[in-house]
Amino acid sequence: MRVALVGIAYSPSFREGLQLLFDSLCEIKAEIHIYTQFYKLIKGDITYRGEVHLFSEIHQLPSDVDYFFSIGGDGTLLHTVSIVKDSGIPILGINTGRLGYLTSASLSEAAEILKTLQFGTATEEKRSLLKIDTETEIFGESKFALNDFTIHKRDSSSMIIVHAKINGVFLNSYWGDGLIIATPTGSTAYSLSCGGPIVAPDCDLFVITPISPHNLNVRPLVVSSDSVITLTAETRHQNYLAALDSRSVSIDAPIEFHIRKETFTVNIIKLPGQNFPATIRGKLFWGTDKRN
Fold it and tell me: Which residues are catalytically annotated?
């Protein structure tokens, strides 16, 4: 088994669990490739008896890597997606964070997880992405997002105005703090905290969610993922943030964003017993009512 490990943070609080994962990988004689940034964080604190290979980009990995292990929270998994790109390599999210909608496996389950992967009892869930097109490549080559694209005001208490079109037809001018375009996966992220609906991950749609809208009759809107959503923004200070998952850039000039469904998907590993209803019940504490 060839495994790539990605992490962007490390804490002694999960050292024991991480060491267990490395020991379990060693027992099955797995070939390990570690993200260079993560290796620098754990070097000297975590030991592995086998050979360790480092990588910073997907092209530095063998073409037959079996799995990506994303070790951290949902933010780490989003970063892992930007590394995996369109390679199709399945991603397993191992949660060391606080909530973790996407990263539901535990380091303490390392040995059981590896057995599940070895015996083929895990499943893969395809997750759709959104893609951003602009005249200037403000996000470089990684123009896709698993969760959402967001336009948000900054450096001022003044409102931002986001003009939105769907397939070239004017929809609305949103006055407020900004606007979120979320995928079904992203419906449980920033969009949810702004009043957007929870969407099952296998749905084929986008959610348009305003952030603190000044007009009280403005509500989140669900549209087909076949749509092309075009956004432009204006502010008094011509300065705002555009964010694609965990990557954000400051915009200080007029720009037009075209959001559409990406042509490829990412594969998220689901262990036995893991499913969307169970995840929502657990993370949102549904069923804790005494009447249930």
Answer: 74
Residue 292 lies in a domain: no
257-270 pLDDT, tens digit per residue, is 999 999 999 999 98
Name which of 144, 158, 163 is nearest 245 in CA terms.
144
Q: Is 263 exposed, middle or buried (0-12, 13-18, 19+ CB in 10 A)?
A: exposed
Quick check: is 153 in a domain?
Answer: yes
Q: In terms of domains, do 243 and 134 share one?
A: yes
Same domain, yes or no, for 138 and 244? yes
Residue 291 within any structural domain of the chain: no
Residue-level pLDDT at 244: 95
Q: 137 and 122 share a domain?
A: no
pLDDT digits (tens, 9 = 90+) for 176-229: 999 999 999 999 999 999 999 999 999 999 999 999 999 989 999 999 999 999
104 and 147 in a common domain: no
Euclidean distance between CA atoms 186 and 181, whole angstroms: 9
- Write the DSSP assignment of 9-62 as a string of letters: ---GGGHHHHHHHHHHHHHTT-EEEEEHHHHHHHBTTB--SS-EEEESSGGGS-
pTM over 0.85: yes
Specify whether the CB–CB gap between 132 and 262 falls below 8 A: no
Which tokens hold the place of 88?
Answer: 């199709």
pLDDT digits (tens, 9 = 90+) for 28-37: 999 999 999 9
Domain that holds residue 27: 2-128+265-283
